Structures are given as C-alpha cells and as structure tokens.
Batch of 2 targets.
Target 1
Amino acid sequence: MTELEEYYNKFNEDKRLTRRHGRVEYITSMKYIHACIDVVMKEKNEAGDGSGYTGTFTPADIRILDVGAGTGRYSVALAGEGYDVTAVELVKYNLGILKSKKSSVKAFQGNALNLSRFADSSFDITLLFGPMYHLYTFEDKHQALEEAKRVTRPGGRILVAYCMNEYGVLLYGFRDGNVKQCLEDGRLSKEFKCVPHPEDLYDYMRLEDIDALNAASGLERYKIISPDGPANYMRPVLNAMDEETFDLFVQYHLSVCERQDLIGAGAHTLDILIR
C-alpha cells in the first residue's frame, strides 16, 4: 500500500466537504460545473455533438468524467441530477465507498496518467479535482492534462483543481512554525516556492505554473476561479457564524471568486479549460 493510499484510507473527503470551509468549495465548484454543463448543452443543441444527432439533448446526453473522484461527492450528486457520469479513482478504499452509495455512476479504479480504457472524445466535461494535488513533476501533470484533453470532445470543458503555493507557505510554513526547516531542507526555495517531495503527499502551484501546463497542452482558458477564497484561513470564524451570516459569506465569496487579484491566495484554484 502506498503512502497516498494509507492517507486516504484515513481521510474523510465527504466529511471535509460538509464542513463550512468545504461547503464553500463544494457550492462554488458545483456552480461552475453547472455553468459549464449549461454552455455545453446549449452548444450541443445548437450545433450538435458531431455524432449526426439533430434532436434535443437532455441531461442524460451529457457525459461527465470525474478523474480522482474520491468517495464520489461530486460524481454521485451529478448522477443524481440525471447526467451520464463515469468516475475513476486510484484508492481502492475510496472506490468502495463510492460504489456503496448505489448510484448510477460507472466507477473504475485507475489514475489520471492512463485513461486508456476510454476512447478519444468520449466525454463532454472532464473533472480533475484531485490528481494534480499529488503529481510532483511537470511531466506527470502534463500527462494528466493530455489524457483529460484526449478523452474530452472538442468544444467540451476540462475543470482542473490545484493546491496553491501561498496557502502552503502561510499555513504550514509560518503558522505551523516550519518555514525555517523547510528553507533549510530544500522544501522551500529562496523565493518561497514549494519544492515537491513525494513523501509530503501534496504539491503546490503558482499561477505561472498552471499557465505553463496549459501552454504545453495547447488548451485555452475559459475561466479561472478561487473555489474557496479565504475560507480555509477562516475555519474557526466560519464555524462560529450563525447560518444566516454563513449564507452571506457564501454570497460574498461567489461575488468575488473570479477576481484576478484574489486568485492564487486561497487554498485551491479551479482552472476551467476549453477542449
């Protein structure tokens, strides 16, 4: 069993996404998934999907691939809305939980670097909401993006989530008192860029790193957002809010999550690409 598998055997992703900081991320991500679905549905109904079908497309005609699906928080919810969802998950423990939910999701064990079980242009929307967190080299990240590109039809959307460098430096470096040791052992460069080590489990990116990956894969950005904004920095504050105030915080976050001056400062960034 790998360190990553051992980690996720203990990590409860469903629980994380039901806590308030996780709810911000989930609500925001689902908003943009649905926005992409709406665009793809409109485009298919106006121009077809290349198959020759000229009728009206329904949710069941929207094919979604969730790579790194975890325990199925997104894929099961989307399948429940009537979409044709396929999930790929590396960790057998997570896959078992996903399958136990008895949804219509077609779930397979696999990883983002090899999606060879799927033909080219098989999906309208592809989600990469976890794999990039745990790939440490440019080459592996590029391979994952290339595979997502291959299985997504032209005109489809690819949504890619990343963990961000400044969040890692501020929390695990300065808040937790590890910054000096990280500089000494090479886990931080002198420019305060996180240097990935597989034993750390997570990799952290800056916007220029994401831009370089997109350029290498020839993918055009549709939008880039911060799915959680300051939520991870504010966990105790969010937890102390009454529900009405928390709802106002979510409204505030949704109103600013596309602001370019804020993207990159949160724990995660969600890059939305046009195939």
Target 2
Amino acid sequence: MKDQQLNKSRKPEWVISKEKQLEKNLPRRVWLYGIHAVRDAIKNQNRVKHKLMLTENAHKKIRDFLTTSSLFPEIFHPRKFLPPLEINAVHQGVALEVSPLNWGSISEVCAPHNDNKLVLLLDRVTDPQNVGAILRSAEVFGATAVATAARYSAPETGALAKAASGSLERQPYLRVPNLARAILSLKQMGYFCIGLDSSSNVDIADGLEKIPKGPVALIVGAEGSGLRELTMKNCDKIFKIKSFGTFGSLNVSNAAAISLFITRTQQNSWQSD
C-alpha cells in the first residue's frame, strides 16, 4: 500500500526528463556573497543582476551603492536570512544572484596594442581560493587578463568572487577551450610565453633580462603537478622563482604574484630605456 502511494506521488519519468533538459538550457546563474564581492558586482554595469538578499545590518553598509541600481533588495532578519549558498559560506549578510561575466575571446582581450601587455595563464589551477587571490594580484600588477582552460578551471562562484574581493568584476578572467592553442595564439600575437616550473635552472629575474622586449605571457601550474609536458613544450622559455631557503615551496597564488611583480618591473624598465 505504501509503495502504491509513493508511486502516485512520484513525478512521471517524462516530466523529470523534461525538467532536467530545461535546467540544462537555462543560462547559468551564480550566487555571490560577502560585502566586497557584492558591492563591486552592483557597481559593475556589465554584470547582469537578478536578486539581492540582505540582512538589516548589511543593508545599512551597502545601501549607498543601491541608489544608482535598479535592484530592489529583499531584507531579512538575520535568523531568517537563508540564501542558497554553500555550507559555511561567510556571507556577511549579503547575497546577490547574477549571470556570469562574458569578457570575450583571448584574441579580443589580449591583442597587444603596446609592448607593456602582460597575461597570466593557469594550467589546471582549480582551487577557487587560489584563483580568487590570483585575480587580486593580477589586477594590482596590471595584467591584461587571466586565462585558463575551461575544462580544468575554477568556475565563477561565490567562493571565488569572495576570495577575489571585488577583482572578479574588473580583472578579465577568460576560460578558453584549449590552453595549448591559447598559448600558440598569444605567440602569434607577439607574446613571449614563459612557463614557471621548479625544474628550470634559470631564475625568472635573470631570464627576463635576456628575452626580447614586448608583451609577456606567464604560465603557472597547479600545486604538486606543476606544468603539463605539452604546456612546457609550447613555452618559449621555462624559468623558476629563486628560493633562498633550503626547503619549502610557494603556494600557486604566491608564485603568480611574485612572477607578475618581477615581470612588470622588467617591462617598466624597458619603457624607461
């Protein structure tokens, strides 16, 4: 009897199949959270925004940014604030549903109009905290774009946006179909492509002094596995970050930040020559 009742209440298979198909065809939406990430998303005119949820206290902190927005926030008592976020998300009483950003293709964004262009590529770096921190560093050091293979990347999520602390709204983050082809495309545009790997005998600071002046693309790999063999083959040079200690390794976001700083410093010296 119970089985009959369960079968009656269960949706027909064709209905379930139809609903799943509709979900696949819907444009993907993302929930951003945290004061900085949501504030900068609201300010970003290129960001499509759908729904804003706030606690009473959080509303006081960001209401000034809502005056130029068409968003009408839903305001909740803290105990009734239940946005659909991942468990343990540090939301600070703010959640915003958005559509992912579309920055365009690597050829559109990275076309070298001057010799000071700097691009960072990520080889299978998938941790959203690392990618968020990398986007912050890329913005600080004036990188044209951060690019990664779509299949092996950190998608645009609330965790990534919060780690980026607003940089996701300003720093182009490109997810390309194929990283090897992206490197070749950059080389055709005149970029000198440098892989960062501990297997190299050449420190990046020394190596940069001997490369041609012009736009540079840096490629960093995931912690542990590093750069893949095909990625290394497509690079013009492989450098490393010199270590002054006897043991230890850098987190990928720290390695990216140091590499960006050293490269930008070298490019600036070219400009002053």
